[in-house]
Design a protein that fits this description.
- The protein folds into three domains: about 5-165, Rossmann fold; about 185-350 and about 370-390, Rossmann fold (3-Layer(aba) Sandwich), CATH 3.40.50; about 395-495, GMP Synthetase, Chain A, domain 3 (2-Layer Sandwich).
- By secondary structure, it is an alpha/beta fold.
- It is globular.
- It is built from 15 helices and 26 strands.
- The strands form seven sheets. The protein has a five-stranded mixed β-sheet. Strands 16, 17, 19, 20 and 21 form a five-stranded antiparallel β-sheet that branches. Strands 2-1-10-9 form a four-stranded mixed β-sheet.
- Strand 3 (about 50-55), helix 3 and strand 4 (about 75-80) form a beta-alpha-beta unit.
- Bound molecules: methylmalonyl-coenzyme A and adenosine monophosphate.
- Adenosine monophosphate (AMP) binds next to strand 13, strand 20 and strand 21.
């Protein structure tokens, strides 16, 4: 067993690793379940040799067993979004060329027909109970470990490939900066197909010997009851969740609110990230709970890059300074290195936590690096020593509820609608979601469309967070002299700056 996450788990032994619907599970349980699963995955092979293994497993013991089991067998995990539609799963399975799909009894009925049609073997975790003992392969840190699908400036999501060494660097940086320890207890309600949930919460917690309480999804009342009972020392969420928690606190009775707020106030660390945290939310949270949220900045391709101080200033509207082991620079539009404060530039990142490649997309990989530095596409400026995110270079990237969405991908789906001839998708500011998806469409002659029927049609094809929340039917889309749709003018149609 040569992967540090697992060798460390040996030393954590009988400590409780997970509190889940299935009960409590020790680090020893995780090791045993993942060993058995690794052997079942291997069958008669000695090493999966980076075969892609898709995971459609809810948070809990079975998810960790599937992830660690795949890694211990030498495979590459491709976690799927639990609430995705069949076309979205099909895209991930086909693009990653998944050989095996690990799932649960409940989800097997939903993914089974797709596996039969596309060919990957389906393995139901609970079906694997006993296996004959055998050696597991040596998995070196330079090997590929995980493919996460991320939307961007291409119409279809790209697979971000990280190695075991990248993952280790991402974990070690956060464990050092935020002082994780075996006494920590953290709730996990974020989805486990993105790094916020996978690395920042699950893997940092397990690396440290901490206790993680898993939930199938974010549910404010359940969580608040546990907070009131002092169940956690650390808390990590996207801004939308803090907005929803503020709403829940405000509608609680004053005695309940006091108890919840006292619970939050006692935690040693509360972090916000994945999207900009509005200064008003930072302030309101502080007023309610006495906690200064620590905001940080990251990306699937690089892990976390910038963070406010754990011991030191947590400045609203800023994302702090580079994390341990991460190098960050700003490059101007004219490709000049920015050396002074108050001059905006693109954030570029280098270091062991940065991914190596987009799966099967060598050209896009090359274009994404500038002399070894990853080009994030985010603009920032340094003010009084702290980085501030100013926005993105591409208007086609939307951040909604912490999810990164591609306007181009949503447009491609909308164009399949029988009455839509043309469309332009943008993100418009939204108090709860950060940005909300809005679509301007031109319809075929004589046709009509309303938002409810459009949403119902989209539901079969795309995850709920990609479905337009606002619809505007127009006679023509605004275009420039070259005939290209001008997104700033589309924003104005929605009355958005
Ligand atoms: C859901 N709804 C939405 C959206 N999402 N409406 C507008 N915009 C959205 N984005 C609607 C649904 O259609 C539904 O409406 C209702 O809200 C409830 O849906 P549900 O899915 O149950 O919502 P929820 O459970 O309350 O979800 C909110 C959430 C979730 C908990 C904030 O979106 C979430 O877990 N987000 C985190 C994503 C994440 O982990 N991102 C990190 C990526 P109706 O009832 O009418 O049908 S990693 C990353 O970004 C980098 C690396 C980083 O820095 O971390
Ligand atoms: P993802 O591709 O889902 O990994 O999302 C990464 C993107 O989320 C970054 O490129 C940023 O645009 C955005 N992001 C993450 N953290 C923050 C933050 N604290 N403030 C503003 N944007 C953020």
């Amino acid at each position: 067993m040569n992967l540090p996450l697992m060798t460390r788990a040996v030393s954590h032994g009988d400590a409780v690793a997970l509190r889940a619907e299935t009960g409590t599970h020790s680090y020893r349980d995780l090791l045993e379940r993942s060993r058995v699963l690794a052997i079942a995955l291997l069958g008669d092979r000695d090493d999966l040799r980076e075969a892609r293994v898709a995971l459609l497993v809810p948070p809990g013991l079975e998810y960790v067993a599937a992830q660690w089991g795949t890694w211990r067998a030498g495979g590459v995990t491709t976690p799927l979004c639990l609430s995705a539609t069949e076309p979205e799963w099909e895209y991930s399975l086909t693009d990653s060329d998944a050989e095996i799909v690990i799932t649960t009894t409940e989800l097997a009925a939903r993914i089974g027909p797709l596996c039969q049609r596309l060919g990957p073997r389906m393995l139901v975790v609970s079906d694997v109970t006993t296996v004959a003992p055998r050696e597991l392969p040596d998995v070196t840190p330079d090997r590929r470990a995980m493919i996460l699908y991320t939307s961007g400036t291409t119409s279809k999501p790209k697979g971000v490939v990280t190695t075991h060494a990248n993952i280790q660097a991402q974990i070690e940086s956060l464990v050092a900066a935020w002082e994780w320890s075996a006494t920590d207890r953290i709730p996990l309600f974020l989805p486990l197909h993105h790094i916020h949930g996978i690395i920042n919460v699950l893997s940092c917690g397990l690396w440290s010997g901490a206790q993680i309480e898993t939930f199938s999804k974010f549910d404010a009342p359940t969580l608040l009851d546990r907070v009131r009972a002092d169940a956690y020392s650390v808390f990590m969420a996207v801004p939308t969740i803090y907005v929803k928690l503020i709403q829940a606190l405000q509608s609680a009775s004053s005695s309940d609110r006091d108890a919840y707020c006292t619970g939050f106030g006692r935690m040693r660390l509360m972090v916000s990230g994945s999207a900009a945290l509005p200064g008003s939310v930072h302030e309101e949270w502080f007023q309610l709970t006495g906690q200064k949220l620590l905001e940080r900045y990251g990306m699937t391709e690089i892990g976390m890059a910038l963070s406010n101080a754990y011991r030191g200033e947590r400045r609203p509207g800023a994302v702090g300074v580079p994390l341990p082991g991460v190098e960050v620079r700003l490059k101007s539009e004219s490709s000049q290195l920015i050396r002074s404060e108050n001059e905006p530039g693109e954030i570029q990142v280098r270091g062991p936590s940065v991914f190596g490649e987009y799966w099967n997309r060598p050209e896009i990989t090359v274009e994404s690096f500038d002399d070894g530095w990853f080009r994030t596409g985010d603009m920032a400026v340094i003010e009084d020593g702290y980085y501030h995110i100013m926005g993105r270079l591409s208007v086609d990237i939307i951040k909604s509820g912490g999810y990164k969405l591609s306007a181009l991908e949503i447009e491609a789906t909308l164009l399949e609608h029988p009455v839509i001839c043309e469309c332009a998708v943008i993100g418009i500011p939204d108090d709860t979601w950060g940005e909300a998806v809005a679509a301007a469409v031109v319809l075929k002659d004589g046709a009509s469309l309303d938002i409810d029927s459009l949403r119902a049609w989209c539901r079969e094809r795309q995850s709920t967070y990609k479905i337009p929340k606002q619809l505007l039917v127009v006679d023509a889309l605004p275009r420039n002299a070259m005939g290209k749709v001008t997104k700033p003018a589309v924003r104005q149609l929605f009355g958005s700056p």
